[in-house]
Automatic annotation (TrEMBL):
It comes from Pontiella agarivorans. Pathway: Cofactor biosynthesis; biotin biosynthesis; biotin from 7,8-diaminononanoate: step 2/2. This is Biotin synthase. CDD domains: Radical_SAM. PANTHER family: BIOTIN SYNTHASE, BIOTIN SYNTHASE, MITOCHONDRIAL.
């Protein structure tokens, strides 16, 4: 496979085929650096050598009624995850300071829930208004479950920039992962966010037993939605969930292939090496920055992660730079 030629085609506005995307995931380790270089050229065109930092705030934890098999915040699974209802406006606003201190481009408010209640939505909206007043350059992303158009408009009007709602996996594999809602409901919420003018953050989770074709199909479903941001998560089995104790089938090279494939399929989207990157990528974390241009720092919703100073050092050592809050143009140096 001529990976440079495929990269050139995408650079010039063409598209990768599903067959070629599958070939990326099936490629040998000997081809990996060539694939990463082809993906990097696409990434550099759209994002330069910058890396955007995101910080998560778990604003509601451990009481979700849905049965997503990977998620330790489902109330259906027994574990020691902290459980609490929606945090106060004051607590959420205070959390934004941690994002600013870490040069984060976005502060991401996540509530484990099927859908936000009117009261919960107003808490997020009021917190957003106060954060925007205090930190006007800090972008706000919220992840609150299923949305109606009316609720999406409320978030937009309050100043939320982006809404996250992951598809998680392919339509074919989705019933193996979630039974309390269906794939089409997720698609509907994603389209609703885009309809009202919110940026759409929408990705998935690899390593749950899906096929390589399922991984490709997820990427193309995201491309069809014209997503603005793609968090690529890698399974880190959580205690109490159906995946607990099961070995993760992904190797570090598999993760790099997945990120490269996503860059080929969604060339202009922000690609994030997201949950599980520290545990699954291990020593190859810096190589993930060749296809990906974004990471979370200082941990995830219910698990720890690399601290900001570690991530900052990794980014600088690899020859990249942290995107400054408010900056819009890629640094091409």
């Amino acid at each position: 496979m001529d990976w440079k030629a495929i990269g050139d085609r995408v650079l010039n506005g063409g598209k990768i085929t599903k067959e070629e995307a599958l070939a990326v995931l099936e490629s040998s380790n000997d081809e990996l650096l060539e694939i990463a270089q082809a993906a990097f050229r696409i990434r550099k065109k759209h994002f330069g050598k910058t890396v955007s930092i995101h910080l998560l705030q778990n604003v509601k934890s451990g009481i979700c009624p849905e049965d997503c098999t990977f998620c330790s915040q489902s109330s259906k699974y027994k574990n020691d995850v902290e459980r609490y209802s929606m945090q106060t406006v004051e607590t959420i606003v205070e959390g934004a300071q941690a994002a600013v201190d870490r040069n984060a481009k976005r502060y991401c408010m996540v509530a484990s829930s099927r859908a936000p209640s009117p009261k919960e939505l107003e808490v997020v909206c009021e917190a957003t208004r106060q954060i925007k007043q205090k930190y006007p350059n800090l972008e706000i992303c919220s992840s609150l479950g299923l949305l109606t158009e009316e609720k999406a408009k409320q978030l937009k009007e309050a100043g939320v920039n982006r809404f996250n709602h992951n598809l998680e996996t392919s339509e074919n594999f989705f019933p193996e992962v979630v039974t309390t809602h269906d794939f089409e409901e997720r698609i509907h919420t994603a389209k609703t966010a885009k309809k009202v003018g919110l940026d759409l953050c929408c990705g998935g989770l690899y390593g749950m037993g899906e096929s390589l074709q399922d991984r490709v199909d997820l990427a193309f479903a995201l491309a069809d939605l014209d997503v603005d941001s793609v968090p690529v998560n890698f399974l880190d089995p959580r205690p109490g969930t159906p995946f607990s104790g099961k070995p993760n089938p992904l190797t570090p090279n598999d993760c790099i292939r997945a990120l490269c494939m996503m860059r080929f399929v969604c060339p202009t989207a922000e690609i994030r090496a997201a949950g599980g990157r520290e545990k699954t990528l291990r020593g190859l974390q810096s190589l993930a920055l060749y296809p990906a241009n974004s990471i979370f720092t200082a941990g995830y919703l219910t698990t720890g992660g690399a601290e900001y100073e570690q991530d900052k050092q990794m980014i600088e050592d690899a020859g990249f730079e942290i995107e400054i809050q408010g900056a819009k143009e890629p640094a091409l140096a």
